[in-house]
Amino acid sequence: DGVSRHIAVDLGASGGRVALGTLRAGRLEVEILHRFPNGGVPVHGELYWDILGLWREVVHGLRLASTHGDIASVGVNSWAVDYGLLDARGELLGQVNHYRSARLGGVMERVREQLSDEAIYAATGIQFLGFNTLYQLAAEPPERLAQAHTLLMVPDLLHFWLCGAQACERTNASTTQFYDPLTGAWHRELLARAGLPTHFLPRLVDPGTDLGPLSPEVERETGLRGVRVVTPATHDTASAVAAVPARGDGWAYVSSGTWSLVGVEVAQPVLSAQARALNLTNEAGLDGTTRLLKNVMGLWIVQECRRAWDADFAGLDAGAAALPAGGPLIDPDDPQFLPPGLDMPQRVQAFCAQTGQSVPQTPPEIVRCVLDSLAHRIAEVLDALETVTGRSLRTVHVVGGGAQGEFLNRLTADLSGRMVVAGPVEATLIGNLLVQARACGGLKDSSIREVVRASSESQTFTPAGGDKGDSRERFRRLTVVQGRTES
Ligand code: LRH
Predict the structure, then answer these.
(1) Ligand 1 center to 258 CA (angstroms)
(2) What is the pLDDT of residue 485?
(3) Which active-site residues does the annotation give?
(4) DSSP 3-state of 212
(5) Run of H or E including 465
(6) Contact, 245 vs 425, CB < 8 A?
(7) Is the Cβ–Cβ distance between 96 and 41 less than 8 Å?
(8) Cα dihedral 232→295→202→442 (10° resolution)
(9) Is the preceding omega at residue 424 within 30 degrees of 0, hence cis?
(10) Buried b (16+ CB within 10 A) or exposed e, 105-136
(11) Which atom of ligand 1 is nearest to the CA of 235?
């Protein structure tokens, strides 16, 4: 009947979803069947993911999908860098650690000293972030690594539990910082130079790979029959970027959620000294593209503040928007904002106090300060991307849950002096679903982005006139004073 149905599982740091996608006549309809919360579980000084709880929610979502007619495939995407280790029987060895864990303190510095920034960046093109898988492995007890038979990234682990196949999908593998973007293989030599074993690295597969049918056990638990497990671009950011409704190349994107991933799509990795100095990342995108981007702290700081205030604060954004411009700013990428903690509002206040600014007091004032700062940082990164690529980036596509934040969109347009096109909010699910649909032969005459344009709506924010140079300069000086080493 020309209709194909697929299930996407999108695991984000603050919540997960199971969605049904129906592709009909070149348009995709997305129905979210199940939503569930996610977050770090602090235990005895360590931070973990509740991977079994996530699995239970995924299975529940699949069961809900089983009443929706014939479904061709299912695929999982998640946040990057985290992994599970399996023994030879395929059993999980220990817990899945959370990338915001304090155990990683100082590890990156040690490995960088040992291998040199030049060597690591030339080999991988990946931004130096203390939680990259490379440093997580370096923080593992050697005996745990010796015992490990297979390393699977989080979405790969769920694919294994769904169908029994062990493989790492490329887009997410590229975030480990031991993947070679030039050859498309694991960079075993880099790991060896860091004194780390490589025997547990499984085969790499592309987005759109059929890993096999659901296991009989999962079929029994969910009621699904005849469904294939097909890898999407398993890195959530890769799925989101695949679903940016853009044409041509004069555009940048912000994949907006817990993180703001600010970048462009390029044909080849950019491994230059300039890219390294700007600490830009080159992550593997769909169809051999490269996502040249930078991690900006994103809505995380506001999420943690909301958790601390323990209230819904429906009107918080409106309250923040009603405040006058020109208030205090923080450097959102200061590492002190990375770890979770109910003291996040106090961290924001302390930053303002230590830099001689007025100290925001009320929740709306604090949110305003964070959003202003985020928009400044996004504008700064967009300028850097323009310099590195030599492209004129006139349009910024904001996709993902954060695209619903109208005030941040307006600030981003005003401060960057660029047109902001917001939407789709469900870019990650859409990108995940359309890669599966294409792999199953359901996308014959149109490209993924054509289907996205035909299926979704967006909202445009035109930059207000007026010179923002003073405030941009104030932000720049602030980040220099705070002594961040990267731009
Ligand atoms: C966003 C994201 C981002 C990574 C981070 C760990 O969800 O995948 O691209 O850097 O999580």
Answers:
(1) 8
(2) 53
(3) 236
(4) strand
(5) none
(6) no
(7) no
(8) 10
(9) yes
(10) eebbeebbeebeeeebbebbbbbbbbbbbbbb
(11) 8
Residues of the chain scoring pLDDT < 70: 1, 311-313, 481-487
In the block, tokens 């790991």 appear at 191
- Look at residue 310 in the predicted model and tell me its pLDDT: 79
Degrees, nearest 5: CA angle 197-200-205: 125
pLDDT, tens digit, 9 for 90 and up, residues 448-478: 999 999 999 999 999 998 888 899 999 999 9
Best residue among 9, 234, 237 to mutate for probing ligand 1's pocket (most ligand atoms within 8 Å of CB) is 237
ipTM above 0.95 for this complex: yes
* Helix, strand, coil percentages, rounded to 5, for the chain: 40, 20, 40
- Confidence (pLDDT) at 314: 72
Question: 3-class secondary structure for 121-177?
Answer: HHHHCCCCCCCCHHHHHHCCCHHHHHHCCEEEEHHHHHHHHHHCCCCEEHHHHHHHC
Predicted pLDDT of residue 482? 67
Residue with CA closest to ligand 1 atom 11: 79
112: CB partners within 8 A, 6+ apart: 120, 128
For residue 384, the model assigns a pLDDT of 96
CA atoms within 13 A on the CB side of 382: 29
What is the rounded CA–CA span in Å between residue 441 and residue 435? 10
